[in-house]
Amino acid sequence: MIAKKPLLFLLAVSFLMGGNIHSVSGQNLEALSDYSIKLAISPSHLESGVAEHEIGYLFVLSKHGVPITSSYDVPVSLSSDDPSIVSVPNKIILKANEEFVSFPIRTTEKSGTTTITANLNGKITFQKIEVGTDETYLPDDLILELNLPTNKMHVNSEMPFTVFLKTLDGINIRAPYDVDIILEYDGLLASSDTKVLTIHKGEYYAWGILQAHDKVGNTFLRAIHEDSGLDVAKSIQISSTLPSGLKLTIFPKLIPAEIDRTLNIFVSVVDSDGNPTKTPNDIPLDFFSSEQYPIGDNLDKFGKSEKPKIKKDQFGYLLQQKYSLQNLLTNDILIGVSSPGLGTATDTFRTVGESMEMDQNQRLGNHHFDEKDYDTTVNVFGLDKIPSNATAFFTYQLSLIEDDEDDDGIRPDGTKIEIHPDCFDASDEDSSGESASEDITRNTELDPEDMVLYTIDCLTDGELYPIQSNENLYTDGFIQKINVISSDEKLATIENGGKIISSYSYGTAKISTGQKTGPVKISTSINGMGTGSFTSQVINTLEQKEVRLFSPTGEESIIFDRDGFFDMFLIALDEKERPKILKEAGKYLVTPTNGLIEIDKGSTFTFSQLRSDSFNISDSETKITLTVEPIGEHANLNLEGSKTFVTFPTSQMLVSLPLEKINANHQQNMGVVQLVDFQGNPVIPKFDVKSKIVSSKDSIVKIIDDAVIPQGSSYAIFPIKTTGSLGSAIISASAKGVNGTSFHVNTASSQMQLQVFTGGLDNEIPSDNPVEFRLFVDDENAEAVSGASLKIITQGNAVITPEVVRTSSDGSAIVSLTAFEGPNISFDIIATAEGYAEGKDSFTVNVDSPDKTFGGIDLELPEWIVYLVIGGILMIGVVVFMFLKKSKADLEEDWEEEEEI
Q1: pLDDT at 440
Q2: pTM of the predicted model, to two decimals?
Q3: CB 655 within 8 A of CB 733
Q4: Is 579 helix (H, G, I), strand (E, B) or coil?
Q5: DSSP conformation letters of 775-798
Q6: Across the chain, which distance is largest between two alpha carbons, in Å?
Q7: Residues of the chain with pLDDT under 70
Q8: Residue 714: how many CB atoms within 10 A of its CB?
Q9: Which of 768, 763, 839 is nearest to 807 (CA)?
Q10: Which residue, 47, 160, 72, 54, is CA-closest to 573?
């Protein structure tokens, strides 16, 4: 109990010495010379339109940049450099003890930039504000893109195309003003619906329609941006499914040179790509041949009597005429056909001089010259491509397979196998052992294309040679049966399998194709002979083969707004990837957007704006796969397809505060979130946008509510709650479908900072001897602060008494310092006072430390002597407090004189 008495005594003395407490709620601005004013407009970039925005703020700042209040109402003058863009009130009032005053910003339909100026007691501040977009330049690193869904077109069709600008980094540019793109094209083949495309202000692209005319060929489309000197061009191939030529095919290719031989001569019409097509009108045909007798004369007579033609809605004509070829032993016999406007077409065949037949034992003989055993097969001929819903013909032929290895062989009975003399090499001997006559030019001495095939021996190993049947072969159930089948009845159906009559080597099958397209195999098997097949492609060049997703902002990219909306074309394409004109309207479902798109009858494409809830990203880039599928009663599910796009947002969430440094003790702080594009221009959402706002340090600042940006506005204000703690934090804002951003904020005190000074303390003091000195506390205006509490903290190598002391009415206090050892000591002084920001300072003093004979610290003085010393020091402080009324400088001098006495 006795030990606590000195402590109570010290507390009592400290209380008596305490002066009046300052409660600073407002500053006298006339007396406060070192302050500034801050005009803040947040956000500083607004959308154009007649509106009033409560986003103007005026603050009075201390010299540390922290908002402070005024002790009385203060008028502030405002002005705008261009009221036609933005107008403000002429005068506003900063009320007493309020940290800021807000004022409205009134915008008009006019876009542009102006400056708002504020004047308070001769102190001037200004802030620029931008309304709408009034930029007059584009970035330097630009690329002009011309975007086509396909580079192929059909005559008399149309397709969309787009133009847009992007940076070298691949970022699409939002036009800051109307950007004109000039178009050039060859008007003979195709033309655009406009000469100039304009990327309107605020848009990312512009689109037009390219229309193909009735001529085929290659054309081009060129886009030019004159201001930047950029241009780009692409070629387009224009073709047609209308007949543009003829094609003639002769089957089979090898015919015995005998009487009454029938040829299958098939003439078809082809389009500009060489694909078979149907004719909308009758096409007359005129046949001719390189061999006038007997073939040419026969063709002339037939043409005059029958007037052959390809009928309307058909793609071909089959000519089957008998010719007496017994005296025509030659190769590359040409037969041709011509028609006005479609030109000519030709094909060739060759005759063989040795007719070979098969007996029942499959022993083959060449008129008793020699006999050998041959392998047999069936050779099938046809067209590579056949139109859908058409009639076509296939030819199958009995054939022998030449085996050169048995030409010089020996039969089982020991006799020698001999080859035909006309197939000898010049060095070979004839069957009698004599050399072949040197006067005969033989087949083997000729080039293959000039060789006349008298017999199978003249063929190379593995080649086929026609063999005549010795009886009639049918496809309708006779013993020697011919079986003709289709690999897919939906693609092609056998209408008539045909027959091979006696002394002939081939027959003809008639087929009909259906609506389905794709490869089909026609196979023929003949009992006892073998099997052969031929594969054709059933095509419909006008059939819709694809429905393509075409993004106007890049082949594989989508630009979506903050609501998830993005633009998309859907275009119907045929087998040749040309725009397809639909005979009936087509409906398609696009997922995951769940958008229903319809291409109208008679059109090739449609435009739609889709929306997807999947765009909930905050990164700058991601991917999405869109799937399109036809719907309806007779929907063709083969048209279903998908495409993966890289998605890019068009906007970002910008967070800002009127001041980067806010008052830690002021509760009415606010921030702003705004939707802007990547060039910083305001974006107006179609729906309310709920943001997510968080603070990195709730111990510094807290976010009370997430702001909702209303439809029709680009921004919203949200409250910020301070905790009274000083420090820094990061406020981050994000929203669905946009990029998020952050803002760095600092908290500080609006109270004036306390300043700590020392007086009467030498640069060097002796060790182990108490040294008294004076502490002074001032505010930022060098005014003494009474009643300030001073806490002194040493490093353990010194003692300062008392450790806590209050300043008197003149802002000073006296303490005693005893240093134990050197060479120097340090101590910290923390000053606090209600209504002021804490002040702190550190001091270092040199210590003179002579050799110690005994340490004062070792003296065990009575406790009452220690109390007496402390009491004396305090009494001296009271005397100084009551009688000393001088400046700090005078006080320091008087104190030094007292020390000398």
Answers
A1: 46
A2: 0.60
A3: yes
A4: strand
A5: EEEE-TTS-B-TT-EEEEEE-SSE
A6: 162
A7: 1-33, 134-136, 358-372, 405-422, 424-446, 448-449, 477-480, 562, 613-621, 750-751, 835, 850-901
A8: 22
A9: 839
A10: 160
Tokens 């020697």 correspond to what residue?
480
Measured in whole angstroms, the distance separating CA 441 from the mean position of its chain's CA atoms is 72
Listed residue (124, 42, 31) closest to 76, CA to CA: 124
The per-residue pLDDT for 841 is: 87
Whole-angstrom CA distances from 613 to 75, 204, 591, 754 are 51, 22, 11, 56
Taking the C-alpha atoms of residue 44 and residue 126, their distance in angstroms, rounded to an integer, is 12
- 356-384 tens-digit pLDDT: 876 533 444 444 445 667 788 999 999 99
Amino acid sitting at position 420: H
Q: Are 208 and 240 in contact (CB under 8 A)?
A: no
Paired tokens of 77: 């003058």
Which residues fall within 8 angstroms of residue 898, CB to CB, at 6 or more apart? none
Residue 136 tokens read as 């007059």
**DSSP bridge pairs for 347:** 335
Q: Are 486 and 382 in contact (CB under 8 A)?
A: no
Q: Which residue shows structure tokens 């006892």? A: 528
Structure tokens at 576: 């040749």
Residue type for position 46: L
Q: What is the pLDDT of residue 445?
A: 65
Burial class (CB in 10 A: 0-12, 13-18, 19+), 450: exposed
| CA 300/CA 347 separation, integer angstroms | 17
Q: In the prediction, which pLDDT does 633 show?
A: 81
| Cβ(231)–Cβ(254) below 8 Å | no
Structure token digits, residue 195: 């000469």
CA angle 879, 22, 665 (to 5 degrees): 145
Angle at CA 548, nearest 5°, toward 544 and 553?
Answer: 150
Residue 41's pLDDT is: 93
What pLDDT sits at residue 413? 67
Q: Residue 528 is encoded by which pair of tokens?
A: 């006892």
DSSP annotation of 637 reads: G
Residues 6+ apart with CB under 8 A from 305: none
Cα 461 to Cα 158, 422, 449, 457, 572: the distances in Å are 55, 17, 16, 9, 51
pLDDT mean across residues, the chain: 82
Is the omega angle on the peptide bond into residue 276 within 30 degrees of 0, that is, cis?
no
> Which DSSP helix (H) or strand (E) runs through 130?
strand 123-131
Nearest CA to 768 out of 826, 802, 817, 818 is that of 818
Residue type, 137: Y
Chain-centroid distance of CA 88 in Å reads 43
Express each pLDDT in 772-827 by its tens digit.
889 899 887 778 888 899 999 988 888 889 989 999 988 899 999 888 877 888 88
Distance CA 702, CA 694 (A): 8
Among residues 401, 382, 392, 396, which one has the least CA distance to residue 500? Answer: 396
To the nearest 10 degrees (0 to 180), the angle between helices 863-883 and 5-17 is 10
List, in sequence order, every residue forming a beta bridge with 398; answer none if it has no partner.
378
- Which of 550, 578, 581 minimizes the C-alpha distance to 566? 550
Look at residue 492 in the predicted model and tell me its pLDDT: 95
Amino acid letter at 253? K
Residue 386: both structure tokens together? 């056949």
Question: Is the bond leading into 284 cis (omega within 30 degrees of zero)?
Answer: no
Instruction: State the Cα–Cα distance between residues 885 and 74, nearest whole angstrom.
Output: 36
Q: Give me Rg for the CA atoms of the chain.
A: 52
Q: Is 27 helix (H, G, I), strand (E, B) or coil?
A: strand
Show Cβ contacts of residue 199 under 8 Å, excluding neighbours closer than 6 positions.
Answer: 163, 164, 165, 175, 178, 179, 181, 205, 206
Beta-sheet pairing, 261-270 with 316-323: antiparallel
CB atoms within 10 A of CB 671: 23
SS (H, E, C) 302-366: HHHHHCCEECCCCCEEEEEEEECCCCCCCCCEEEEEEECCCEEEEEEEEEECCCCEECCCCCEEC
Residue 432 has a pLDDT of 44
